[in-house]
Specification:
The protein is of the alpha/beta class. It is built from 16 helices and 21 strands. The longest helix is centred in the middle third of the chain and has 20 residues, at 331-350.
């Protein structure tokens, strides 16, 4: 930031911006991203050599920056025990209609899926039933399983949820947790289904089949099942074309099935077919870890409370080669967030006058498998959740330079929102609305795990109104990245990256964090928010 820009900001805001906020370095951010996404780290796979190197690097950087260990037993690490389930190429999915020939589906090309029972093989032959979006939401008077027993059956469904413009019905355009694939499988298991198969469409998933294929055609991680805990024998996806063959057994198309699912009063439809599944699985026990550092606050009492900054370190590791490259580098997702987290930690540790509350810098594991590392942190925080003032998450920043806007989905749900608005004003940023409300971004990143624990939380994301570029450029570039690089080996670092936007958003988050760390009261959720009861419980402990 230039001296002129800083002076202008001071004149506009009438307040001071700490020098460390203007000293955040794009060069340091760049160097961290370059290393974290290099071939040496092999895509930062969980339970793999590259992931171990990434966590050692982050912990070492914390130590060099003067950030103290806040993990277990005086270390920077919080151990997270998971189970890896790797589906094998011999996995079979066959639809057996009542009056037609068998319909075999091809692994990766037509379907993907995983055995969630953490066994070496699951085989079954079970009837199928279409359950729309697979949602039971009494607060919206919606039940896709109404009066239907699906125990021992395979449920076929869509991800996402019924479309709405009414904020009182599934919160309008913004996707709720009911629309996430994680919820679909959780609810199917609660209902006793033996399997659950999602029919993929790009509009309902918000990404193409290549993303599903690259994410699900490899080892997945899960929390270890407790004794007697029920899980699906098969949780899978089929392509739109494969879904058409299933829909045709009742004389429908995929579009017609989706229309049925979107219609109030939907009732489950038994399908005239069975699914025969064989799901051989390679199982391994995984010990992975979150990396946690702490900078102590200045106030004798409030230093026992903290502001959290987070970013996930994991990506997809080594996988199916694309154009000869087997490394899923994860430069944007989420080498950028980790790099910004390290630079935030450096800047906070360098503050000559520390804020009243402490700061925790948390790099979490296994986000790509369903936010497992952040969920573990939310369930086992190093200080009580009721003493965490705010969690700010960084997850994936594009190297397109600075924007006129910033996205802070969910901040408006918290009592911190006026602080966010003031920070945006001081940085001359417009707060942009959710660019993809139908994608349910709030429920797809690590801040959601903190919110479930009651902690006010949101992610800072880049805007798309790019400075010095024609209108619409940001949207075009994002669509291209999503189509060609997201969860692909092509998510690589390049030396021509413009990281000035990352600098700005790191400064923006640092200002919000320091303001909250110095505020007299702990933040909370606004009245009526779904996470307010969890906050109230945490504060009462």
């Amino acid at each position: 930031m230039s001296v002129l820009k800083l002076l202008l900001l001071l004149l506009i805001s009438g307040g001071a911006i700490p020098a460390q906020m203007t000293e955040i370095s794009g060069g340091r951010i760049r160097a961290h991203v370059k290393f974290l996404s290099s071939d040496l780290l092999e895509g930062r796979g969980v339970g793999a050599r590259g992931g171990e190197l990434a966590t050692e690097y982050i912990a070492t950087q914390f130590a060099l920056l003067g950030v103290k260990p806040a993990g277990e037993n005086g270390t920077y690490f919080q151990k997270v025990s998971l189970v890896g389930s790797e589906p094998q190429p011999s996995t079979r999915l066959i639809a057996i209609p009542e009056k037609e020939s068998e319909i075999p589906f091809r692994w990766l090309d037509d379907f993907v899926g995983v055995n969630l029972r953490q066994t070496t093989n699951e085989e079954f032959d079970a009837p199928a039933i279409f359950v729309g979006h697979g949602i039971t939401a009494p607060e919206y008077n919606w039940d896709d399983y109404r009066d239907t027993d699906v125990r021992g059956k395979v449920v076929v469904l869509f991800t996402n949820e019924p479309p709405s413009d009414d904020p009182k019905f599934f919160t309008g355009k913004a996707l709720t947790y009911y629309g996430r694939w994680t919820y679909k499988y959780e609810e199917a298991a609660r209902r006793g289904a033996i399997g659950a198969i999602i029919i993929h469409t790009k509009p309902t998933a918000s990404y193409g089949w290549d993303v599903v294929r690259s994410s699900w055609g490899r080892e997945d991680q899960h929390e270890r099942l407790a004794p007697g805990e029920y899980a699906l024998s098969f949780a899978g996806w089929v392509t739109t074309d494969a879904g058409e063959r299933v829909a045709a057994t009742i004389g429908k198309s995929v579009d017609e099935l989706l229309h049925m699912a979107d219609t109030r009063g939907f009732r489950p439809v038994s399908l005239p077919l069975r699914f025969r599944v064989s799901a051989p699985t390679k199982i391994r026990q995984i010990e992975t870890r979150n990396v946690i550092g702490r900078v102590e606050g200045a106030d004798p009492e409030l230093k026992n409370e903290a502001v959290v900054f987070s970013a996930h370190w994991d990506h997809l590791g080594l996988g199916e080669p694309v154009d000869g490259d087997p490394v899923y580098h994860g430069a944007v997702d989420n080498g950028t967030g980790c790099a910004m987290l390290l630079e935030l930690a450096r800047a906070w540790a360098a503050l000559p006058q520390k804020p009243r509350r402490s700061a925790l810098f948390v790099s979490v594991t296994s986000e790509e498998a369903g936010l497992l590392g952040s969920r573990y942190f939310g369930d086992h925080p190093p200080i009580p959740a009721g003493k965490i003032a705010l969690a700010i998450n960084y997850d994936g920043f594009q190297p397109w330079g600075r924007s006129r806007d910033v996205v802070v989905i969910g901040s408006e749900r918290t009592s911190v929102f006026p602080v966010v608005q003031e920070a945006a004003r001081r940085f001359n940023l417009t707060i942009a609305p959710d660019p993809q409300p139908e994608a349910g971004l709030y429920y797809r990143s690590d801040h959601f795990s903190f919110a479930r624990a009651g902690i006010p939380a949101f992610s800072i994301e880049e805007g798309r109104d790019l400075l010095g570029k024609p209108p619409g450029t940001g949207e075009k570039l994002y669509a291209e990245w999503l189509d060609k690089r997201y969860h692909q080996p092509t998510d690589r670092y390049n030396d021509d990256w413009d990281v000035s936007g990352m600098e700005e958003y790191a400064r923006f988050g640092l200002l919000i964090g320091t303001e909250v760390a110095n505020s007299p009261k702990l933040p909370t959720w606004r009245d009526g928010d779904e996470f307010l009861p969890a906050r109230q419980r945490s504060l009462a402990r």
